[in-house]
Design a protein that fits this description.
Layout lengths: L2 H9 L8 E3 L9 E7 L3 H10 L7 E4 L9 H4 L18 E2 L12 E2 L21 H11 L6 H11 E3 L25 E5 L7 H9 L17 E4 L1 E2 L1 E2 L2 E2 L2 H6 L8 E4 L3 E9 L2 E8 L7 E11 L2 H11 L2 E2 L1 H5 L7 E2 L5 E3 L3 E9 L10 H14 L11 E5 L23 E6 L11 E8 L6 E4 L10 E3 L6 H18 L8 E6 L7 H11 L1 E2 L31 E3 L14 H18 L3
Parallel strand pairs: 1-12, 2-3, 2-15, 3-12, 6-7, 15-27, 16-17
Antiparallel strand pairs: 4-5, 7-9, 8-20, 10-11, 13-14, 14-15, 18-23, 19-22, 19-25, 19-26, 20-21, 21-22, 23-24
Helix pairs in contact: 2-13, 5-13
């Protein structure tokens, strides 16, 4: 990409976070705070904002990565392609263990590294989840506070729904339900205004008698149907937890954020009491400790929070001993129950002219200059504008004799995004891509320690396509995509299949293709799952406190007892908003 244009972008002045941010441990002047938040990502910065609203409360956030807000790659929607590749910046660059269901392959699991966490590098899709999803949380935890109706005020509290930069209010008419959204929250949400040439065709095909689907607001309690993707984008710029919850609070002397610093473990100061954290600026840097008068809150993500619990001796005794970690508190489910959604891309040749931001440098430069001028144009593009959500037929043999893996009748079994991938195509071949995803898989993986070194990456097993039902649902998703592509309304626009090639026809060979080409989304959950008080399942109670421990709480997607139906960033915001109120209530703040 043209380097002079990066300089041009900086000349317009991206706003750098204004809160008290320390680049290293040596700059911190004290070692005791009311709350210590381990991780400055999706949930961590929500907690930092809400807990520091009380000027009498001293809050410290410790983030392993650095700033993200002043980088064009994190601000311009299209440029997230630079962030999701293997070995990209703002990632931990985690590689999974060999995946049994993927023919022994290892794959990249992208997770955020830096302020904003995954919200600073994800695909920006905004999907809350269905009524069924949250009501299932309430059922599992025995706490109605996690039900959809109870969480809905938090959903609206987070959100500031806005019109896209290039379209007026008429564009969103029929594409969203205002009653399902918030308009005063810190986080900007919008429907992207750059329409794909395939959008109208997809809607027409799915409305036909063969599919009989309707356009819906995917964030209005149920997402079944066709919906226009809502994104964490406002004014043509990515909205992350860093830009929305941290940057605006630049006058709070009671909030401190130290970056480039990794929490290495939580220390038991007396039996059953964990309120001290050990940290270091790097593997060879000296360890320092900080103490919370009230609570330590782990918000390091599905992998990071599980790893920290295990490094702190909170886990399964024999498994910890195997890597040289002394048990401090028996909690055998730490790191277990990981759930994530496998995703596979199929593609077909398209009969249309193509303009690629990747392959055409002149077009890229012109589009970037346009974005720099008024935040409009192709740089606001995301890979697909439409998503369709499907359930298996009621009489499906796949569900015969087994429990439905979905949370309920308003929740899909699989998703599909159909797009021309025009701006994202790196070659000259016009392409139609179908991104297929199992919504709520039943396969379960884990996070385990590779060693007792906190700077050593843990073992991450996503367990993709281990269970046959997940594989069969993904195969059904492919059949649905193929039926759309081969629909008479698509004739002349969609041509031969490109991947897998046309000669791959039988189901067994399609499955082999899926096992070879499935990738990971950043949607994992469940490694410190919520469960009822008194239950031996899970890791935390419905109040998000680690069971049997004082002073330690977990607030991130690791506490989700089951996977939500798609992207989980919205649910983490809702979780963190309610968690903030739970904490405030407990400490009378």
């Amino acid at each position: 990409m043209a380097s002079f244009l990066w300089i041009l972008l900086f000349s317009v002045g991206f706003r750098i976070a204004g809160a008290k941010i320390y680049d290293s441990l040596s700059e911190l002047e004290k070692s005791q705070f009311d709350f210590i938040i381990c991780g400055g990502g999706n949930a961590g910065l929500v907690l930092a904002n809400r807990l520091s609203e009380n000027p009498a409360v001293q809050v410290l956030v410790i983030e392993a990565g650095g700033r993200t807000q002043d980088d064009p790659d994190t601000q311009i929607p299209f440029l997230d392609i630079n962030l999701l590749a293997d070995r990209a910046k703002y990632q931990w660059n985690t590689t999974t263990t060999p995946q049994k269901g993927l023919l022994g392959k290892t794959i990249n699991y992208p997770r955020g590294f830096g302020l904003g966490g995954s919200t600073a590098h994800n695909g920006m899709i905004w999907i809350k989840g269905s009524v069924d999803d949250y009501d299932n949380w309430a059922k599992v935890t025995g706490d109605d506070g996690w039900s959809y109706n109870a969480l809905e005020p938090y959903m609206k509290k987070v959100e500031r729904f806005t019109n896209p930069t290039e379209k007026g209010p008429d564009f969103v008419n029929g594409k969203f339900n205002p009653q399902a959204h918030g308009f005063q929250g810190p986080l900007g949400i919008s429907i992207i205004g750059n329409e794909d040439r395939i959008d109208d065709l997809v809607v027409e095909v799915l409305k036909s008698k063969e599919f009989n689907m309707s356009v819906v607001d995917g964030n209005d309690k149920s997402s079944l149907g066709i919906w226009w993707i809502q994104s964490s984008v406002s004014g043509g710029t990515r909205s992350s937890s860093a830009t929305s919850y941290l940057d605006p609070i630049d006058c709070r002397p009671n909030l401190s954020v130290v970056i480039n610093t990794q929490v290495t473990r939580v220390i038991q100061t007396k039996k059953g009491d964990f309120r001290t954290v050990e940290v270091a600026g790097g593997p060879k840097e000296p360890r320092q400790t900080f103490t919370a008068c009230k609570e330590v809150i782990l918000s390091a993500g599905v992998v990071g929070s599980a790893q920290l619990l295990l490094l702190s001796g909170i886990g399964h005794k024999q498994e910890l001993a195997a890597v040289g970690v002394k048990l401090t508190h028996e909690s055998p489910n730490v790191g277990k129950g990981l759930s994530n959604q496998p995703q596979t891309l199929f593609s077909w040749e398209g009969n249309f002219t193509m303009n690629s931001l990747i392959a055409n440098q002149t077009f890229f430069d012109e589009s970037l200059a346009r974005w720099n001028k008024n935040h409009t144009g192709p740089m606001n593009t995301v890979p697909a504008n439409l998503v369709s959500a499907f359930r298996l037929p009621e009489n499906s043999t796949l569900l015969k004799g087994i429990e439905d893996p979905s949370a309920g009748p308003r929740t899909p079994h699989y998703y599909m995004g159909l797009a021309t991938t025009e701006y994202f195509n790196s070659g000259s071949q016009p392409t139609i891509g179908a991104v297929l995803q199992v919504s709520e898989p039943i396969s379960r993986g884990s996070v385990t320690l590779n060693s007792n070194d906190p700077f050593d990456q843990p073992n991450v097993d996503l367990a993709f396509l281990v269970e046959d039902l997940d594989t069969q649902i993904l195969l059904q998703a492919y059949r649905t995509a193929k039926a759309q592509i081969e629909h008479p309304l698509m004739k002349g626009f969609a041509l031969d299949r490109l991947s897998p090639p046309p000669e791959v026809q039988i189901d067994d060979d399609i499955i082999i293709y899926m096992r070879n080409n499935t990738i990971a989304t950043s949607h994992a959950v469940g490694t410190a799952a919520m469960s009822r008080n008194g239950s031996h399942d899970g890791v935390v109670g419905p109040d998000l406190k680690v069971k049997g421990i004082n002073g330690l709480r977990v607030v991130d997607a690791s506490v989700f007892p089951v996977n939500l139906q798609m992207n989980n960033q919205a649910a983490v915001y809702h979780l963190a908003e309610r968690a903030s109120d739970l904490i405030k209530h407990e400490w009378h703040l």
